[in-house]
C-alpha cells in the first residue's frame, strides 16, 4: 500500500472523487441560484475551476502544464470568494488593506505563468529546472501564507450576525490553503514533492468541498440534526450518488485493462460523458419530484411534513417589503409550494357575482377571459367547498356536478391542474387555479385535506385584508365628509353675505349704471356659489337631481366649448354628433363629462386632441370621451382606477373616477373603460334612451324616420 504505485492510485482516485464532488456542488448551487435563492457567483466560479483542476489532475497528472494552469485559476477563484465574503458585511470598503493584499496575491500567483513557460523552455537544462521549481514553490508559499492571513481576518473580524454565514467557507479555505502551506514547505525544504503528499491532496480537496457544501446547505442557520424528510431526501440522494460512483469506479477499472494511451483517453471520455449526464439530470425538477414522491410513498406514513409545510406557508404569506409580491400573488404561491406546482392564478368574485382574474404567479401565458367563471360557480363552491381535480373533469368524471360549471378555456388549458376554493364563513373570497407540477400525479385524500385547511386559513387572511381596506376607505370618506362640511359652511355664509349685499345695493346705490352692473355681478356670483353648494352637498349621497329627457349631443358640445374647443392647450373636438336623447340629469351628466374630459386633458401632452362623440345603438345612448395620452395598464383599470382616494395626480383626492361611475349608475347607466399604455384611453357613458325609458317612438333628428324600442 505504501509503494509509489499505491500512492499514485490513491491520488488519482481521490482527485477524481474530488472532481465529481465539486461538480455536483457546482451544479446544485447554480440550480439554486436559477430558482432565485441567494447564492454567491464567486463561489460557483471557484467550484467550477476546482472541478476542472481536479479532473485534469486525475486524467493527466498533477504536474502537467494544463493542470498547473488550472491550479493557478483555482487559486484566483478562491481569492475572489474571499473578497466576496469581505464584501458581505461591507468590510471591503472599510478595511483598506484588503484590496491591495488581494491584488498582490493575485499578481504573485500570475507569476506562475511565466515560470511555467520558462520550465517548458529550459526543460533540458537540469539546474534551470531546479531553480524554476524553487521559485514556483516560494511564490506558492507566499500565496498560501497571505491567503491564510486573509481568511483569519475574515472570520475573526466578522460581525456576530455574519460569522455563522462565513464559518464553513472559512474552514474550507483554511483546510485547503493550510495543507498547501505544509505541502509547499516540504517541497521547498526537500527540493521535491513527496508522492504521499500529492496523494493526500485529493482527500483534502474532498474535505474542503464537503465543508463548503455544509455551509451552502445551512445558509448561516444554527446547526441542528433532525431525521426529517429533508435529511431522508439528502440521504437518498447520497445513496444514488454513491451507486453512481461505484458504477464509475467499475467502468474506469474496466477501461484501465485496455492499457496505454487508450486507457487514458477512455477514462477521460467516460468522465466527460458522465459529466454531461449529471448536468442534464441534477437540475431536473422532474427528477427531484420523482425522488420526493418515492420517498414519501415508501418511507413515510404521510406525504407531507406538516411542520415544514406550515413554516414555509407562514414565511410566504408573511413576506413584506417593497420587493414582496402582492397578497393575492403570495396566496397563489403558498398553495403552489405545497403541491410543487410551477404556476397558478387567483380568481375573485367581481361586482356582478362572476369570477374575475385577480393575480398571476409565474403564469403569464394563460389566457383568462374578462368573465373567468359564471356566478353559478361561486354558489357551487360556497355550497360544496369542493376541490376540483381538472384531470378527472377532462377524463369525464363528475363527482358533484362540477364538470358542467367548468368553462371551456379552463378545461382546454392542460397546464391547469386543480381548483382550490378559499372559503371564509361559507363565503367564497377567492379561487386558486394551480398549474401542473413537473411530475404529474393524482391528488389523494391527504392533498385534499391539507389544501382545504390551508385554503380556509388563506381566506381569513384575504377577508382581513379586505376588511382593513374597507375600514381605511371608510375613515378616509369620513375625513373627506368632515372637510366638505366645513367647506359647505363657509360657502353658505359667503353666499348669504353676497345675497344680502345684492339686496342692499338694490335699495341704496345712487348711480343707476353702477347699481345695474353690481346687481348682475353679485347675482351671478351668488348663483354660482349656490350651484357649487348644491354639487358639494351631493358628495357621498349617491343621488342626482331630477332625471328627464335631455339631448346628450347638446351637453357634449357645451362641455367641449367650456374647454376652448380647438383653441385650448389640448383641443377638444366633437367628432361625431348623432342625435342622442337620453334619460338623465342635465347638471349631473355635465359634471360627469367635465370630469372625464379634464382627466383626458391631464393625461395628454400639450397640443394633443381630446375627442367627444355621441351615438346610440337602439337601446342606449353613448357619449364617448377619447384621448391619445399616456393610457393605463389593465391592472390599474381593474384594481385602482375606481378605488376612492387612489390618485396618480399630486394632491388629488382620487375620487373623481369613483364619483363619475357612481353618478352614472344613479342615472341607471354604466361607465365603460378601454385603455392601452402609451396609446390612450376611451371612456363611454351609456344611458337609457328616451325611447327605451318611455316605450314610445321618437323621430331621428337626422333622417326623420321613426324608431321603435
From TrEMBL:
Coiled-coil residues: none
Enzyme class: transferase
PANTHER family: OSMOSENSING HISTIDINE PROTEIN KINASE SLN1, TWO-COMPONENT HISTIDINE PROTEIN KINASE
Gene3D superfamilies listed in its UniProt record: 3.30.450.40, Histidine kinase-like ATPase, C-terminal domain
Gene Ontology CC entries for this record: plasma membrane
Species classification: Bacteria, Pseudomonadati, Pseudomonadota, Alphaproteobacteria, Sphingomonadales
Keywords from the UniProt entry: Kinase, Membrane, Transferase, Transmembrane, Transmembrane helix
NCBIfam families: PEP_his_kin (TIGR02916)
GO molecular function, one term: phosphorelay sensor kinase activity
Protein name in the entry: histidine kinase
Domain Histidine kinase: 486-691
Enzyme Commission identifier(s): 2.7.13.3
UniProt KW DNA repair keyword: no
Keyword Transferase applies: yes
Transmembrane segments: 12-30, 42-66, 101-124, 130-156, 168-186, 198-217, 238-259, 265-282
Database matches in InterPro entries: GAF (IPR003018), GAF-like_dom_sf (IPR029016), HATPase_C_sf (IPR036890), HATPase_dom (IPR003594), His_kinase_dom (IPR005467), Sig_transdc_His_kin-like_C (IPR004358), XrtA/PrsK (IPR014265)
PROSITE patterns: HIS_KIN
Reactions catalysed, as given in the entry: ATP + protein L-histidine = ADP + protein N-phospho-L-histidine
Domain of life: Bacteria
Amino acid at each position: 500500500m505504501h509503494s509509489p504505485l499505491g500512492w499514485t492510485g490513491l491520488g488519482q482516485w481521490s482527485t477524481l472523487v474530488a472532481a465529481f464532488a465539486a461538480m455536483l456542488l457546482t451544479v446544485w448551487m447554480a440550480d439554486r441560484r436559477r430558482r432565485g435563492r441567494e447564492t454567491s457567483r464567486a463561489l460557483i466560479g471557484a467550484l467550477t475551476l476546482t472541478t476542472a483542476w481536479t479532473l485534469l489532475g486525475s486524467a493527466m497528472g498533477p504536474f502537467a502544464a494544463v493542470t498547473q494552469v488550472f491550479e493557478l485559476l483555482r487559486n484566483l477563484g478562491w481569492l475572489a470568494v474571499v473578497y466576496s465574503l469581505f464584501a458581505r458585511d461591507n468590510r471591503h470598503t472599510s478595511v483598506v488593506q484588503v484590496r491591495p493584499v488581494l491584488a498582490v496575491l493575485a499578481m504573485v500567483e500570475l507569476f506562475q505563468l511565466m515560470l511555467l513557460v520558462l520550465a517548458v523552455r529550459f526543460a533540458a537544462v537540469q539546474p534551470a529546472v531546479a531553480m524554476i521549481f524553487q521559485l514556483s514553490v516560494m511564490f506558492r508559499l507566499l500565496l498560501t501564507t497571505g491567503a491564510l492571513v486573509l481568511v483569519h481576518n475574515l472570520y475573526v473580524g466578522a460581525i456576530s450576525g455574519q460569522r455563522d454565514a462565513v464559518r464553513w467557507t472559512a474552514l474550507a479555505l483554511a483546510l485547503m490553503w493550510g495543507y498547501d502551506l505544509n505541502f509547499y514547505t516540504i517541497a521547498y525544504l526537500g527540493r521535491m514533492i513527496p508522492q504521499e503528499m500529492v496523494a493526500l491532496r485529493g482527500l483534502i480537496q474532498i474535505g474542503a468541498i464537503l465543508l463548503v457544501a455544509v455551509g451552502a446547505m445551512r445558509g448561516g442557520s444554527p446547526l441542528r440534526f433532525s431525521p426529517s424528510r429533508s435529511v431522508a431526501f439528502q440521504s437518498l440522494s447520497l445513496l444514488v450518488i454513491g451507486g453512481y460512483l461505484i458504477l464509475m469506479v467499475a467502468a474506469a477499472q474496466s477501461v484501465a485493462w485496455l492499457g496505454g494511451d487508450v486507457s487514458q483517453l477512455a477514462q477521460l471520455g467516460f468522465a466527460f460523458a458522465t459529466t454531461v449526464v449529471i448536468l442534464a439530470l441534477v437540475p431536473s425538477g422532474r427528477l427531484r419530484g420523482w425522488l420526493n414522491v418515492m420517498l414519501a410513498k415508501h418511507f413515510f406514513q404521510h406525504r407531507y411534513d406538516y411542520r415544514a409545510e406550515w413554516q414555509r406557508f407562514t414565511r410566504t404569506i408573511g413576506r413584506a417589503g417593497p420587493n414582496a409580491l402582492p397578497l393575492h400573488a403570495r396566496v397563489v404561491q403558498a398553495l403552489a409550494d405545497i403541491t410543487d406546482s410551477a404556476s397558478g392564478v387567483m380568481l375573485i368574485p367581481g361586482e356582478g357575482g362572476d369570477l374575475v382574474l385577480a393575480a398571476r404567479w409565474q403564469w403569464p401565458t394563460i389566457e383568462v377571459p374578462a368573465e373567468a367563471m359564471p356566478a353559478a360557480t361561486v354558489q357551487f363552491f360556497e355550497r360544496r367547498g369542493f376541490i376540483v381535480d381538472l384531470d378527472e373533469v377532462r377524463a369525464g368524471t363528475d363527482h358533484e356536478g362540477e364538470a358542467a360549471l367548468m368553462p371551456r378555456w379552463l378545461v382546454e388549458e392542460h397546464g391547469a391542474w386543480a381548483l382550490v376554493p378559499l372559503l371564509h364563513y361559507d363565503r367564497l373570497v377567492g379561487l386558486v387555479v394551480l398549474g401542473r407540477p413537473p411530475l404529474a400525479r393524482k391528488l389523494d385524500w391527504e392533498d385534499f385535506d391539507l389544501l382545504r385547511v390551508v385554503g380556509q386559513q388563506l381566506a381569513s387572511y384575504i377577508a382581513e385584508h379586505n376588511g382593513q381596506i374597507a375600514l381605511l376607505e371608510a375613515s378616509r370618506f369620513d375625513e373627506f365628509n368632515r372637510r366638505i362640511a366645513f367647506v359647505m359652511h363657509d360657502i353658505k355664509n359667503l353666499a348669504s353675505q353676497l345675497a344680502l349685499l345684492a339686496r342692499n345695493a338694490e335699495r341704496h346705490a345712487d348711480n343707476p349704471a353702477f347699481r345695474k352692473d353690481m346687481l348682475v355681478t353679485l347675482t351671478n356670483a351668488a348663483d354660482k356659489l349656490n350651484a357649487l353648494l348644491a354639487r358639494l352637498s351631493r358628495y357621498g349621497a349617491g343621488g342626482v337631481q331630477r332625471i328627464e329627457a335631455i339631448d346628450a349631443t347638446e351637453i357634449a358640445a357645451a362641455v367641449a366649448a367650456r374647454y376652448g374647443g380647438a383653441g385650448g392647450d389640448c383641443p377638444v373636438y366633437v367628432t361625431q354628433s348623432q342625435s342622442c336623447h337620453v334619460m338623465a340629469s342635465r347638471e349631473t351628466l355635465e359634471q360627469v363629462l367635465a370630469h372625464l374630459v379634464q382627466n383626458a386633458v391631464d393625461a395628454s401632452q400639450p397640443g394633443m386632441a381630446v375627442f367627444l362623440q355621441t351615438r346610440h345603438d337602439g337601446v342606449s345612448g353613448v357619449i364617448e370621451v377619447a384621448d391619445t395620452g399616456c393610457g393605463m395598464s389593465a391592472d390599474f383599470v381593474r384594481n385602482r382606477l375606481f378605488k376612492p382616494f387612489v390618485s396618480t395626480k399630486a394632491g388629488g383626492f382620487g375620487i373623481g373616477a369613483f364619483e363619475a361611475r357612481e353618478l352614472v349608475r344613479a342615472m341607471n347607466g354604466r361607465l365603460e373603460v378601454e385603455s392601452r399604455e402609451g396609446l390612450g384611453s376611451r371612456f363611454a357613458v351609456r344611458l337609457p334612451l328616451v325611447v327605451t325609458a318611455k316605450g314610445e317612438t321618437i323621430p331621428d333628428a337626422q333622417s326623420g324616420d321613426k324608431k321603435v324600442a
